């Protein structure tokens, strides 16, 4: 017969993260699984700056059935859509008639979060563009492609073929035009003059 574990003790099959847990000598939070514990992997400060940001700015649906209203929230990407959030920075009501009241955004807070690395969802990005806050969004940099302009053997043969085909096309067009003019002239001279 199985016995139930004490409510205060972690189960042996799960990993729990709790503020009551101890820390190791480096200050890293210890991870407890059953009775064993080991320190969490320590990362240098420079490496933590390169980790992907888990904070996103996205919509949270409110309102009732067939009458949607959305809050523009700053949240952790791992939280559910309508779950926990860090901060509400705006409101989007698509059914409002007045376009000025349809979108309300705290631009200062949006700028703060974007500067600190929060990712913006596509829908929120389009809402910010509509509000005239396009300068807040990061512009995609086009990468330089130096190899595209280099002359290779394949590129040379392709260019030569294109030139040869275009020259043949202009010659065919000229002969067709010449034949058409000759046929027109023959038809005009064959008609009886009245």
Could you characterize what this model shows?
The protein has 194 residues and is an alpha+beta fold. It has a domain at 55-136: Ribosomal protein S16 (S16 Ribosomal Protein, Chain: A). The chain has helices at 45-49, 99-102, 107-115, 122-130, 153-190, and strands spanning 30-33, 36-39, 55-64, 67-76, 87-92, 103-105, 119-120. A hairpin with a 2-residue loop joins strand 3 (55-64) and strand 4 (67-76). The N and C termini lie far apart (121 Å). Residues 7-40 and 45-51 have low confidence and may be disordered.
Question: Any descriptors?
Answer:
two-stranded antiparallel sheet, 194 residues, 5-stranded mixed β-sheet, S16 Ribosomal Protein, Chain: A, alpha+beta, 5 helices
Describe the structure in brief.
Helix content is 34%, strand content 20%. The protein has five helices and seven strands. It has helices at residues 45-49, 99-102, 107-115, 122-130, 153-190; strands at residues 30-33, 36-39, 55-64, 67-76, 87-92, 103-105, 119-120.
């Amino acid at each position: 017969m199985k016995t139930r574990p004490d409510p205060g003790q972690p189960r042996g099959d799960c990993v729990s993260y709790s503020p009551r847990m101890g820390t190791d000598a480096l200050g890293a939070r210890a991870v407890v699984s059953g009775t064993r514990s080991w320190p969490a992997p320590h990362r240098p400060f420079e490496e933590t700056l390169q980790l992907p940001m888990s904070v996103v700015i996205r919509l949270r649906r409110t309102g009732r059935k067939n009458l949607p209203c959305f809050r523009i929230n700053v949240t952790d990407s791992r939280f559910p859509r309508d779950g926990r959030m860090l901060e509400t920075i705006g409101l989007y009501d698509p059914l409002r008639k007045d376009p000025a009241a349809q979108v309300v955004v705290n631009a200062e807070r949006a700028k703060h979060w974007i500067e600190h690395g929060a990712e913006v969802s596509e829908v929120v990005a389009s809402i910010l563009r509509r509000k005239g806050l396009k300068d807040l969004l990061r512009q995609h940099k086009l990468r330089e492609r130096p190899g595209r302009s280099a002359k290779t053997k394949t590129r040379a043969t392709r260019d030569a073929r294109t030139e040869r085909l275009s020259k043949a096309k202009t010659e065919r067009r000229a002969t067709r035009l010449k034949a058409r003019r000759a046929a027109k002239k023959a038809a005009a001279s064959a008609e009886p003059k009245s």
